[in-house]
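Inputs:
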Amino acid sequence: MTAPDLPLVEHELDPLIHAPVRLKLVVTLSALAEGDSLTFPRLQDLLNLTPGNLVTHLRKLEQGGYVETQKTSQRKGQSTSVRLTTAGRAALETYTQALRALLVPAGISLAMERDHASRTD
Amino acid sequence: MESKESEQLDPRAALDLIADTRTRARRALEVNGGLLYAAWGLAWLIGYGVVWLSVRGHPIYRTPSAWTFVVMGACMAAALAISIITIGRAMHGVTGSSSTSGKLYGWAWAISFICLFFIIGGLGHAGASAAVIGLFASVGPALVVSIMYLVSGALWNNRTMFVVGAWLALTSGVAVTFGVVTFDLLMALAGGGGFLVAALHEARRKRS
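Outputs:
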């Protein structure tokens, strides 16, 4: 029952996040406290990416409304900082849940959800 | 890079990538508390320790000798430098509310200690004895550090910080009843020891 369903569900995985580089980018930004941003050089350093590569992926995420870039003037000159938007944070959460659902057989997943619901009540 | 982009990411690999990236990012962006506790633990142990060695055994309280202040100053400067470098590394490139509150937090420490020096000077001016000045010079920093740790622990929901603050406040409160000389010994052992236990606790927590 689950096997034929699988490719269908996998298609529903958010294509903006379901790519190694962008997934790492979004997860790294989600490690910041809400309302905080990270400067472009530090982000590049953390992800070990070339500037061109980082810009390409950031642009895609920005078009989707998942990240926001902001130019800030500091003492050392202009710098760009990046932050995850509320939509981006929510998208990562949805994506992670979708992955878990793909891995857990349907019956168990339902039982877990019921269990979770009864605990949060 | 394009080949990597089109490469299929299966759900298990994606979840592993999320967990791995999250661990790496947190390790890089979070301040290594264990290192800070270890640095301050050694600074308290040696700093209060040398003051105690210098003032013990005299029938009447004598102000610690000049070399004591040099050793103590060097310990504090080293611990402060380690703190600034560690926090600076973690916060490098982070802008926004955390960065602003971090800067204000740094100022809160600096202002409190500057104020403490003025109070000690004021006590001397008012004719306080060497023993009273010595006692306040030992108790004052312990009090400021305890309160800062208690408040930081409460506001950031950091139990280790709160417990360290409570421990320092209670031990210094009890130690002060033993008089100025014994206070320095107790602060070296209980205060410095407390920080070192916190350092071990943080290291163990990180490994698990």
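Remarks. The helical segments of chain A are 2-11, 20-30, 40-47, 51-63, 86-103, 106-120. Confidence is low (pLDDT under 50) at residues 1-8 of chain A.
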